[in-house]
Amino acid sequence: MIDRRHALMLGVAAAATPVLAASRKIATLGSGKVGSALGSAWIKQGHRLMFSSRRPETLKDFVAGLGANASAGTVKDAIAFADVVVLAVPYGALPDLGREHAVALAAKALVIDTCNPFPNRDGEVAAKAIARGPGLYTQDLLPGSKIVRAFNAISAARMNQGGRLTDGRQMAMPIAGDDDGAITLATELIKEIGFDPVLVGNLDFGKHLQPRLPLGGEHTTDEIRTIAKSLS
Ligand SMILES: NC(=O)c1ccc[n+]([C@@H]2O[C@H](COP(=O)([O-])OP(=O)(O)OC[C@H]3O[C@@H](n4cnc5c(N)ncnc54)[C@H](OP(=O)(O)O)[C@@H]3O)[C@@H](O)[C@H]2O)c1
């Protein structure tokens, strides 16, 4: 049996071809630059979104501008609403999210982890996440969640612009995860908003999905595959 990393090296499509075109209920935990960009992109594909804030009333005008498929709620409301959850908070918020919501999050079909640890912003938790690798550390904080790391190393401003490089070529999106069903669903959702998802490895490989590392920035699919093969 080949694992995903070897499948990548052999050029085998490790994630199943998406067959679903269902309208999903998606929650963004955090509705700042990343949550608002990704949520806006998925709204355009016909999905229903709940954007979370610790003060949901501050999102009133934003969700009104997105139409009837958008709403705002607390973190708890948004998790209860969704079958797909996007983590779009400072990494330092994840321990509290885990303590309060890990059981509810573990019931979701997919948890997309966009979060990056920065010691100067996130403190001690960032140092721990960097040492362990942020994919595995997010999993430690959210036991049982079906996590796929994605969108970690491109600018939020580019997340709802259709997945094209500045020269018009297709942009790839490196992803990492352990759960086949979650990977399949993430693949489908990421394709819908214009990116070519490339499974680069298991969740431990998520340590490479951070800004300023070789897989960071905007790349074609071939470039992502070549870079990923050079990493361990
Ligand atoms: N910005 C980028 O270009 C970019 C690109 C890739 C990945 N990332 C990563 O994505 C994550 C989000 O980045 P961002 O730029 O979107 O940040 P942001 O604009 O500062 O938004 C973060 C959101 O998280 C919410 N939040 C903060 N602390 C929270 C807590 N303790 N519990 C619940 N919600 C909390 C805030 O909402 P309320 O205050 O309204 O509750 C805020 O709207 C970060 O981990 C970042 O490293 C960012």
Summed up, what is this model?
With 232 residues, the chain is an alpha/beta fold.
Main features:
alpha/beta, 16% strand, binds NADP nicotinamide-adenine-dinucleotide phosphate, 232 residues, Rossmann fold, 8-stranded mixed beta sheet
3D structure, described in words:
With 232 residues, this protein is of the alpha/beta class. The chain has one domain: Rossmann fold, CATH 3.40.50.720. It has helices at 4-10, 33-44, 60-64, 75-81, 94-106, 119-122, 124-132, 134-141, 180-192, 221-229, and strands at residues 25-29, 48-52, 70-73, 84-87, 110-113, 147-149, 172-177, 196-201. It has an eight-stranded mixed sheet with strand order 3-2-1-4-5-6-7-8, sandwiched between helices. 47% of the residues are buried. The site of NADP nicotinamide-adenine-dinucleotide phosphate has 23 residues, from helix 2.
Share in helix: 25-40%
Averaging pLDDT over every residue, what do you get? 93
Extract low-pLDDT stretches: 5-20
* Structural class by secondary-structure content: alpha/beta
The ordered H/E elements are: HEHEHEHEHEHHHEEHEH
Strand content: 15-25%
CATH superfamily: NAD(P)-binding Rossmann-like Domain
Largest sheet entry:
8 strands, mixed
Q: Could you say what the CATH topology is called?
A: Rossmann fold
* Number of strand segments: 8
| Quaternary | single chain
Q: Which radius of gyration do the C-alpha atoms yield? A: 16 Å
CATH 2nd-level architecture: 3-Layer(aba) Sandwich
Shape: globular
Give me the number of helical elements.
10
Q: What are the bound molecules?
A: NADP nicotinamide-adenine-dinucleotide phosphate
Cα-to-Cα separation, first versus last residue: 19 Å
Give the tally of structural domains: 1
CATH class term: Alpha Beta
Strand order of the largest sheet: 3-2-1-4-5-6-7-8
